[in-house]
Amino acid sequence: MAAKIDSDLLSREMSYSGEGVSIRGLEESIANERNVQNGKVDELKTLRERNVEIQSNLAEEVKKLRKFSDYINGTAQKQGIWASFKELLSYIPGLSGLALSKRSIEELLKAQFHISQRRVKDAAEYADKLKDSEKELYTEIERINGKIIEAANNEKQALDYVLELQAAQEALEAEKQAVEAGSVEAREIEAQGDKIHALLAEHSSNVQLFGSAEERYASLKENTRKLAETIRNLGQDITQYTTAASIKLDMASGQIQAIGRAADASVVMLEMKKSLDVMTESMNQTTRFVSDTQVFFRENLDELLSDLDTFDETTTQILDENLAKSKEIEEKRIQAAIDKAVKRREEGGAGA
Amino acid sequence: MSAGPKLELVSLNTHSVEAEGALAYLEKLGRALRAARMSKNFPDRGPLTRHLDLLGEGLRHEVYDRLFVDARTGLPNMASFTRVATDLEVAHEHGLGSGSAGKRAYREQLLASPLAAVEVSDAALRRFDPVAGASAVRLDLTKLDATGTIIRVRVELTQKGKGGRRGVELDVEDKTASAREDLHATIYRHAAFDAETLFLRLGELSGVEVERVERGVIGPVCVQLADGRRFPSQLGGALGGVFDDFPLAAGQCELMLSVQSDFAARDLAEERSNDPLQRLLRERVEPSERARYEAGRAAHPFKVFKDRKFVATRALLPLAKAVCEAGGTRNLIYPVR
């Protein structure tokens, strides 16, 4: 008497979506995702260096403007007017060591305005790059979400199959009780039982793989989200303040011109100070927030990096240990998969 | 058909015009500059109209939402012109870059063709007489002046020997010349003054004989935006408030641009002003300065000629004609097509 097992059950080709069901395939897939993330972190490091450069340039601009303001304010005249004014002019590009009368103040201030506006635009460009990075990271999160759903679907498929195999195994056990031990029928039942056991081993392993993949992708997604949110906050802050600085500069241009004209005529010193302060303030705003950004990067990006490394090592280690012990715990794993499948079915039934 | 409200100031000498009104204004101003038929005595039209076009592109692609205009002259102000220049620098460094599609489209326009600076200075060696050790030189400066106008100053002078601190640096072998910084600064500082003021000032330099000073000034321009708001600028002021009350229908941008020529030269036949808005300096010099002025004129024989052209949209052509009639001058008036 042949065992009453659906022949389709034992010969069924399970088609999982995605990269297949090997550990190697899964590792490669996750490694690819990690590479994308590492690339993004490297890009952020570059952006951080650029940030340092912009900060340094802005600080230099503020220093020059402050010198102008101090001069006009009268606080920088202890060495006498000419000495102070020469020192002041030495802060303007190309003017170091030149005599006072050689250049038009209007022309100098115009050049300074140009440089200041350029610095603010450099900072704005940096903010746009951050926005770009953020966008790419959210695209990456979408991709990882796809992987997570794929892994979850595959796990469910594997679990359903494991349940079917377990039911078949139980049926065979009952059948085996009814036949004579050592008979042909008993041997056939045993043969089918072995096949079922092999399939259980294979697909319970798949259950674990897909479950692991789902969890690891979820962790990757979490880290990617952290990076994206960090970048979004930075980008928004810098955009906000470069916009403010840009508006201040636009508003100050009339005063800058008036100062240049007045200074060339050596008059209207009060107006000069007033507008220089406006210009200094706008540069200060940008500098302050680019500087804050720098601190934020140092404190958070390095920490994020460190977290990512820890996560990677830990999960790899766990997977290695699992592989080494896989033989020993095969039965346990099968049982765990069955338990999980039963539980899910029960939950599904209760929820229905 | 009544006078519209004036545009408010947002900062010292600064109007802020929203994108829609600014685009129509920039387009009309560009056409006015093309219609003005300016000679080589005026700032090069090409770089100016390209700057105006690019300011428009920045607004059209929503990179900027407003344009800043100099309230005294009705022309885009220093921040606006600098905006184009710095945007171009950033575009050269970062390419199309990241950010909005509008920003990238704007940068494509910026990078599409070369953009010459508005503010330029140059010097040319016209003649060199080795026997007399005399060099005839032409100095040329275009600047966005602190008055808000765009001015070109051309000075022709002869320098004997190497010239002083405020002289011209010559390289006879290479046939090149450049104004020493002091000389450059003197011209730069005096660009907004009458040509004869600069002639007199340069005439004081030792070893230098000034032959001709030419100034070409673009602006001011008085404008009514399509929504009826006006910025009369100093041109409106010079017209004694006539522009304020001049009836104009709303619906499209109307403007009247003036461009002034101002010469002080030894070879001029007569001294007169054909500028309905500016008399000769000798007629308006302060009594306290008259003696010094007369002494300067006596030391440097030259004559002065001033002229002004107008370019106006059709609705403002009658105003331009009326201004010339009131000033008793015969001036060229071009319509903006």
Query: Number of folding domains of chain A?
Result: 1
* Head-to-tail CA distance between termini of chain B: 22 Å
What oligomeric arrangement do these chains adopt?
Answer: heterodimer
Most extensive interface, residues per chain? A-B, 33 and 34 residues
**Which stretches of chain A of 5+ consecutive residues score pLDDT under 50?**
92-101, 266-274, 307-312
Percentage of helical residues of chain A? Answer: over 70%
Beta-strand residue percentage of chain B: 25-35%
Task: Please count the beta strands of chain B (DSSP E, at least 2 residues each).
Answer: 14
The main pleated sheet of chain B reads as: 9 strands, mixed
Structural class of chain A: mainly alpha
Mean pLDDT of chain B: 90
Please give the domain count of chain B: 2
Query: How many individual helices of chain A?
Result: 7
Outline of chain A: rod-shaped
Average pLDDT metric of chain A: 72
Residue runs with pLDDT of under 50 for 5 or more positions of chain B: none
User: What value does the Rg of chain A take, in angstroms?
Assistant: 35 Å
The secondary-structure element order of chain B is EEHHEHHEEEEEHHEEHHEEHHEHE
Per the principal axes of the C-alpha atoms, what is the gross shape of chain B? globular
Features of the shown structure:
heterodimer, A: about 350 residues, mainly alpha, about 0% strand, rod-shaped, B: about 325 residues, alpha+beta, nine-stranded mixed beta sheet, three-stranded antiparallel beta sheet, 11 helices
Brief overview, please?
Chain A is mostly helical and 352 residues long.
Notes on the structure:
The complex is a heterodimer of chains A (352) and B (337). Chain A has helices at residues 7-11, 23-73, 81-89, 105-178, 184-264, 269-325, 330-351. Chain A has one domain. Chain A is rod-shaped. Chain A has seven helices and no strands. With 337 residues, chain B is α+β, with helices and mostly antiparallel strands. Chain B has eleven helices and 14 strands. Chain B has helices spanning 19-35, 45-60, 78-94, 101-112, 181-190, 195-203, 233-238, 242-245, 281-284, 287-299, 317-327; strands spanning 9-11, 14-18, 66-70, 120-129, 134-144, 150-160, 168-171, 176-179, 208-224, 230-231, 254-265, 272-274, 303-312, 333-335. Chain B is globular. Chain A binds chain B through residues 98, 101-104, 106-107, 110, 113-114, 117-118, 121-122, 125, 128-129, 131-132, 249-258, 260-261, 264, 275, and chain B through 10-14, 68, 70, 77-79, 82-83, 85-87, 89-90, 94, 97-99, 103, 119, 143-144, 146-148, 181-182, 185, 188-189, 192.
